[in-house]
Design brief:
120 residues, 2 helices, globular, alpha+beta, 22% helix
Length: 120
């Protein structure tokens, strides 16, 4: 049994490393570079969180579904999102695109955010 566990750990190492090395959408984003400089952050994305001015999600999973032509696309599965209108956390799914122009959120109902620039 110990040998099986050791083998499983040895062979799972490359898979774990491959997922860690993948680019993520994590960062702080604003409507433009002036807003970044002023500290007016519109969106903050962490490893498992997304925070907007009136909406936030926890227990967030990011699955990169595309990365070509300088554009990365993530399918986002958030287990607990709440906002001003409804403070009870609910699951949400949406997509995030990131390219040289910035980050954009595509909501499930077909609406989308403005293109947000990454703050340094």
């Amino acid at each position: 049994m110990t040998r099986l566990l050791l083998l499983a750990l040895l062979f799972s190492g490359p898979a774990i490393a491959a997922s860690v090395d993948k680019e993520t959408p994590a960062g702080r984003f604003a409507l433009d570079t002036a807003a970044c400089k002023a500290g007016d952050i519109f969106a903050t994305i962490g490893a498992k969180t997304l925070t907007l001015p009136t909406f936030s999600c926890e227990k967030v999973g990011f699955d990169q579904t595309e990365n070509k032509g300088g554009r990365a696309l993530w399918s986002v599965d958030a287990k607990a999102c709440s906002g001003e209108e409804d403070s009870r956390p609910k699951p949400q799914t949406f997509k995030i695109a990131l390219d040289d122009r910035g980050l954009q959120i595509f909501w499930k109902d077909g609406t989308r955010s403005a293109v947000l620039v990454r703050c340094k």
